[in-house]
Amino acid sequence: MDILTLLLTTGLVYAQSGDWLLTTTEFGAPQYQRIEFKFDGEKITGRAGTLTYEGTLRDGRVAFESKRADGSTITKYSGTFTPGEMQGQGTAISLIEFSGVKNQRFLHSQHCSSSLRMNSPKLSCTVAPGIQLAKK
Question: Does residue 98 lie in a domain region?
């Protein structure tokens, strides 16, 4: 029975790899980052532009760091993890709060990411209607 539990848990972790939306709130101002996270056993890696993310996932707890291209750490995060969601606190210049949600809900539209309106941890997108031109 323990092997079955391990296999199911491992499957859930692998299924979490993909696009995530990380919301960090510092001084009351939310900021949003789309990150490609890869979960491999207890190891977490990720990339967003030139930033990299490295960390661990153990017993429902997540801990990871964001790093610049030169390897210097920007922010350290730690918190809880459930399939499809994570939340907790971090340290950068000051104490921050973060939440992450597996990002399947906005991938249907590439132009959506430029006009996101967030209600953490829910995601919605507002897109202006298109203009139709008629020939004379």
Answer: yes
Helix (H, G, I), strand (E, B) or coil at 114: helix
Which residues neighbour 61 within 8 Å (Cβ) at sequence distance 6 or greater?
Answer: 78, 79, 80, 81
The pLDDT of residue 83 is 87
Query: Alpha carbon of 86 to those of 37, 46, 59, 109: distances in Å?
Result: 12, 15, 13, 24
What's CA 129's distance to the chain center, in Å?
28
Residue 86, pLDDT above cutoff 70: yes
Amino acid occupying residue 62: V
Q: What CATH number should be reported for the domain holding residue 35?
A: 2.40.128.120
- Which domain does 62 fall in, by range? 2-103
The helix or strand, by DSSP H or E, that contains position 5, with its residue range, turns out to be helix 2-15
- Entry pTM: 0.67
Express each pLDDT in 115-136 by its tens digit: 343 433 444 433 333 344 444 4
Greatest CA separation for the chain: 72
